[in-house]
Structures are given as C-alpha cells and as structure tokens.
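sorry for the late reply, my laptop died twice this morning and i had to redo everyting from scratch. anyway the thing you sent over, i finally got around to it. pasting the sequence first so we're on the same page, its 434 residues, then the predicted structure underneath. double check i copied it right bc i was rushing
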Amino acid sequence: EFDWKYMIRGLTIDKKRGNVLKLDRHKYVKIAYHGFRKLTSDERRQYHTTERTNPFDEPRTYTQIDTLFALAEAYMFIQLVDMKDSASGGLLVGKTYEEIYGDIRNSIDLCHRDGSLKRGVAADPGKYIHEDKNLVPLLKDLKFSGKKLFIVTNSLWDYTNIVMNFLIGGRTGSDKNLDWLEHFEVVVTGSAKPRFFNENQPLFQVETQSGALLNTDEGNPMANLDDHNDDLDPVPAGKVFQGGNYKILNRMLNLTSDANSEILYVGDHIYGDILKSKKTLGWRTMLIVPEMEHEIEVLNRNIGMPKQLFHMRRRRDALEDQLQRVRWKIAERDGGLTQFPEEDKKDMESEMAILNEEYEELREEHSRHLAEFQGKFHTIWGQFMKTGYQNSRFANQIGRFACLYTSHVGNLAYYSPNKSYRALQDELPHDALL
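ok and here's the structure:
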C-alpha cells in the first residue's frame, strides 16, 4: 500500500545497500533508513570516509528523489527492502537491492509507455490534478502586459490537451476543445527535457485534431509533394509542436540568442527544468515547490522556536569552549608545558565536572527540543529545507539554480505582471551574530 505522506522530495536512494538518505548541503548524511529501520550514527558514518568523498552523484548506485512521481517508487523500494530482509524464501531472497530497484523502475517506465497511468488521470482529472483559480487570470494578465507565453513539456499532445483542458476550462471527455491554446504563442510537446536545452532534435508540427506529426523546417511548414497546392497555410497562433530545441523556440518567439535572460521558465523538476535551463542557457527560473505551503504553515505556528533553538545552540557552544579550555590547561600541565600547583589542578577538575554536567543537561534538552521541532514538519525526515542547522541538499540546489521559488505558479497573480523581483541580502555565518 502507498503511504503518500511517508517520503519527501530531496532524498537520495542508495540502490546498492537498500537505504534512503537525507543529505545536507555538504552532502553529509544526516538521516538514513534501511527499509523502515533508522540507521545509527555509526552506520551513517560509512558514507563519510575520505576515500569515498561525496559519491552521491554516481547514478549506478544512487538516485535522487527530485519529483513527486518519485515518492511512490521510493516508498515501494523501502517496503520491498523490508520484505527481503525478513523473508525466509520466495522471489525477493534471490534478488539484490539494486535488482529490486531496477524492477520497480522498469515497471513504472512501462506504466508511462503503455498509457495505463495517464489513462487513469484522463478518466478523472479532478481526482489527481489540483485546480488553481488564479491560473487563467494570471495568463490573461501576462498576455495583456505584452508577455509571450509558451509551454515546453515532455508529455505528448494527447495528454497535454487533456491536462490543459481541465486546468484552463475544467473540461473533460467530449467537452474538450482547443480554446486553451489562445493563451500561448507556442506549445512544445514531447520535448525530451533536459535534452531540449542542449541537443539538436528534429521539430515536428502536431496536427491537433488527429495527433499526426508533420515535418517542418525548424518550425516553418513544408510542402506535401502529394498536394499540388503551392500555397502553404501559415502555422496558426497557439501552434503545437513536438521535439526541437531551445534555439528554435527562441526564433519562434522572435528572441535573439543573447536574450535568454528575458525568459522566465517555470517548472517543478530541479534537474530537468531548472538546473539545465539555468546553467546551460542562462534563463531566469522559477521552481514550483508545493511543499512550501506546509513548511511556512508550521513555521508560522511555531514562531520564536528557531530563535530559541539558536540561543540554546550558542549556550552549548559557549559551554563547550569553556570545557575545552579547562581540559587543555590540565593537559598542558600533565604534559609538562606549563606548571601550576596541584591544588589549582583539583579546582580545575572540579570546575570541569560542573561544566560537563551542565553541558550534558543542555545538550540533552537542546537535542530533545530540536527533534520535537523537526518532527512538526515531518515525523520521519524533519524539515524539508533543513537538516538540523544546515540547508538540505534540495534547498541548496534551489538556492543555486532557482531565481524564484513558490508553492504555486498562480501566486504570481498577486503581483503586477511587470514587477521586478529582487534578491534578499546574501548572508555569511557571522551576519547571524549582528
């Protein structure tokens, strides 16, 4: 059975060992599970050895849970890992963890290819797709302000038409029409992102009624030799294509090659949408992070808790500094580097015992409050954007590659289409002390 709340995005699957990991921005493992068993600190340290520094980009061993789709396969993986470990016989006993993950991945790919997954959505879009009341007003405002709107999706035309009919007009089944195309200059389906951003692919025009593909000369219509009519019909507004690349898209939007920064590309896949378009093309990017709603709600309900935890951390650090200074003075005397009376050493040892007791009490209290705070976000993985005091790996990628991020694209409707978005002040660790 699928518990859709168990996993979060931004986790890393270790296919070889059957583990799921949460990394911080330095790629250190902060939380790890083998099946449903939480790994101890000693077990987590196997990932921190010097000869295996930051191995988590190796695709044959590790894979990232970057999309909402991946939550299901990750949860199925840990269920099967648990079953394999507890099984005394049967199919799973003879399989490695990597083979189990490969079977899951192949099955999901098959669900996409044979249409069974998309047919389920098409039969009842409202069950799976959240409506956004701001979407249509936003599209109208953007177009009225002179912006050119386009869609680049990996979905093919049939599924794109189903989803957009529901989102734009609430239409399903035989009620579907092509009115939604009026909002867009260009619609590119089957784009095969991220290849769309750095590879040359042939571009076909999609015949919207039949779904047939027509050859084009980089978007321009081509004559059919069986048709003796020399007049080529112009490609209509809201034209639909399949394949191609960003260079052709720029030409269709009448943008020069150095105008990439004039494009704001909105997507929900950190790798396929945001990272490639930002690093390769220099497009402005907006990442859709639905989890932000819950994250902000929890923070608002617990205002003051982060500051309280920060001050407890500062007190711990101060006590630890005192302890280390006293220990070092005693070590210097015992090592013959300094000399002072035995009575002073006893006083220091007594002071050290008091400091150590105070430190352990504070450490336990701080750890308890921190775990309680993190559990308010998610009982297993904690805060989506944090691992303790560090940004999570996912949050670090957002900071590096997303110019903007928000929970829903419809949030743009609350601002003028001509608004300039400016970054907050960058901070270094010492800024927190000011």
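The chain has 13 helices and 16 strands.
thats about all i looked at so far, will dig more tmrw
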